[in-house]
Design a protein that fits this description.
The chain is mostly beta strands. The protein has a single domain, classed as CheA-289, Domain 4 (OB fold (Dihydrolipoamide Acetyltransferase, E2P)). It contains two helices and eleven strands; from the N terminus they run E-E-E-E-E-H-E-E-E-E-E-E-H. It has helices at residues 58-61, 140-147, and strands at 3-11, 14-19, 23-28, 42-48, 51-57, 74-80, 83-89, 91-99, 103-104, 118-124, 127-132. The strands form two sheets. Strands 8-1-2-11-10-9 form a six-stranded mixed beta sheet, with no helix packed on it. The protein has a five-stranded mixed beta sheet with strand order 3-6-7-5-4. Strand 10 and strand 11 (127-132) form a beta hairpin. The longest helix is centred in the last third of the chain and has 8 residues, at 140-147. The chain is globular. The termini are far apart. One of its GO terms (cellular component) is cytosol. This is Chemotaxis protein CheW. InterPro entries: CheW, CheW-like_dom_sf, CheW-lke_dom. It holds the Pfam family CheW. Residues 3-143 form the CheW-like domain.
Length: 149
């Protein structure tokens, strides 16, 4: 079995993981400039070292209870079809190495077309970590809309 490294982040008290090789960087939260007529989960855009980067609220995308943005909020930056995209998370402060044997397939209740981004359930001691593929969180139409921002 192979070991992989995951960036562990929190949303509404739950832990999620994403493969570290999908993450370009993690940066401190910056207030986004609102863009009109975009889906409600797109917070807006920021200027990240000269790159205009759309920022997505994972809480809104996942229909989680929103909370006030705090100083420990982070933005996880990934490349999505050659465009930089950021995801706001509550905290992202840990990199964890996990053996694939500790990651199970998602239960049937979590599968389906709108849950294709859940790639597994990681078990570390007594904790459960929901493993995500951030590139699959958006539909093709949403990716196209972001590409054209």
């Amino acid at each position: 079995m192979a070991e992989k490294q995951y960036v562990i982040f929190k949303l509404s008290g739950e832990e999620y993981g994403v493969e570290i090789n999908h993450v370009q960087e993690i940066t401190e939260y910056k207030k986004a400039t609102t863009v009109p007529n975009v889906p409600n989960f797109i917070e807006g855009i920021i200027n990240l070292r000269g790159n205009i980067t759309p920022i997505i609220s994972l809480k809104k995308k996942f229909n989680l209870v929103e909370s006030e943005i705090k100083e420990n909020n982070r933005i996880i930056i990934i490349n999505l079809k050659s465009k930089q995209v950021g995801f706001i998370v509550d905290d992202a402060s840990q990199v964890l190495t996990m053996d694939e044997k500790h990651i199970e397939n998602p239960p049937e209740i979590l599968t389906g077309i709108d849950r294709q981004y859940i790639i597994g359930i990681g078990k570390v001691d007594e904790k459960i970590i929901i493993m995500l593929d951030l590139e699959k969180i958006l539909t093709e139409e949403e990716k196209e809309e972001i590409k054209n921002m």
